[in-house]
Amino acid sequence: MLIGAQCAPAGSVQEKRARMHSRTVFKNGVVFDGTSVSDADVAVAGDRVVAIGVDLDGDEVVDCTGMSIVPGLFDCHVHVMARDLNVARTEQQAFSLQYFEAGRNLSLLLDQGITSARDAAGADLGIKQAIERKLIEGPRLQIAIVMLSQTGGHSDLHLPSGGERSVPMMLEHPGRPRSIVDGVDGPGGVRRGVREVLRAGADVIKIATTGGVMSLGDNPRHSHFRDDELAAIVAEAAAAETYVFAHAQGTEGIKAALRHGVRSIEHGYYLDDEAVALMLKNETWLVPTLSATRAIIDAAASGVPIPAESLALAQEALEAHRASFALAVNAGVKIAMGTDTPPYWSPSASNLDELGLMTEASSMSAIEAWRAATSSAAKLLGHDDLGVIEPGGLADIVVVDGDLLDLRDLRGRIRQVWLAGVRVR
């Protein structure tokens, strides 16, 4: 049976059961196994890769002539509950609408070959359970639920008028604990805050150690949380056998997070040599999200009502962001792909644009960018059997039209997406 690139995914229960007992071989393509490229066939049985080699046989054959075969892709920084950057519009929508928009976002991630993702605030346990129970389709999801920040920090929705922004994905509800914490102990302290987020089902803990471009009234260059607060946050996460990752844009807030042992720095707009040295010493990851600053500027140009303060900060940060990323790459900092954007800021937008942005901004090669979106990202998120194509690994496989060295229009070149041995696109 020949399965062409345009063949519809198997839909019936009987077909899926049959596939669990059959052997599918991807033939005639170029294989990127998460590390290197070779001409080979890939055999899958059930949910696992069982062989890589030449002239492999199978019950079903996927002809990948002129195509590349890559592991399922990762985006380590998504917000699946968000629609776009139009905060004025989201403030007027019903609270529950975000859950239906999440369903669409998750589906669009799969469209792009993203089979694993880390939601960096917004998605609650119900979203993750809905995917696991197949009530909705989506990639494997690691969730932070909220981003913990100090009063006046990046999660604080306070407005100069005295009111608060009603951004649905950030509002407190029974599955999404409060995100504003101050001091170490007490009812509003960071220790209880971390424990509440873990109780709500978070896989990982996200904090903001600086202000942010899109939050009014705080400055991305300012350092947030003090040393005792950061120490308590990291200790509580470690006690629960998980880790902390930090929204960190300004230099001092980046270094504060690094000194206390966060696992990854998100954004890293204003790195310096000392920060890079700390990242190397601590083996800290950088998730650069180069798409984020670009998206804010593009949204404003298209007529989205971006606050003037936020637009000015994004424009100021754009070149510094690129330079910081280049500094990190040249020094050998570990990089994992993340975008900080939902998958449809515009009809032509794609999370996969991040690969091209990384190579344009630094000495990173196209293959290194693919590693950042596969094997490296898997290591950051703690998945030993994902991000690679190797015998025994989970069969998350993406078929991409054309040469992997060409990073243009990747979204339009995704031909097939397989999740744990089942074709979903």
From TrEMBL:
Q: Where is the Amidohydrolase-related domain?
A: 69-416
Q: Domain of life, per the record?
A: Bacteria
Which Pfam families does the UniProt entry name for this protein? Amidohydro_1 (PF01979)
Q: Which Gene3D superfamilies match?
A: Metal-dependent hydrolases, Urease, subunit C, domain 1
Q: Which InterPro entries match?
A: Amidohydro-rel, Metal-dep_hydrolase_composite, Metal_Hydrolase, Metallo-dep_Hydrolase, OTAase-like
Report the protein name in the record.
Amidohydrolase family protein
